[in-house]
Amino acid sequence: MTEKTAADAEKSKETRLFLFLVICLFPLLSVAIVGGYGFIVWMYQLIAGPPGPPS
After folding, report:
1. Is the dihedral angle over the CA atoms 43, 47, 52, 55 positive or is it negative?
2. Considering all CA atoms of the chain, what is the largest pairwise distance in Å, rounded to the nearest integer?
3. Cα–Cα distance between 3 and 20 in angstroms, integer?
4. CA–CA gap between residue 35 and residue 40 (Å, rounded)
5. How confident is the model over 5-51, as pLDDT tens digits?
6. DSSP letter at 54?
């Protein structure tokens, strides 16, 4: 009987972890990565100038 409850508790814990990863962590992480990349490109263009041939 204790093995069944321990297995159920582990499955419940894994389900909550999966939902946390899918609903919270992955969207926040993807927004942070894309935003960080955009910020880096923006700072680079402030220093090096816009892309394209010089006029």
Report:
1. positive
2. 79
3. 26
4. 9
5. 988 889 999 999 999 999 999 999 999 999 999 999 999 999 998 88
6. -
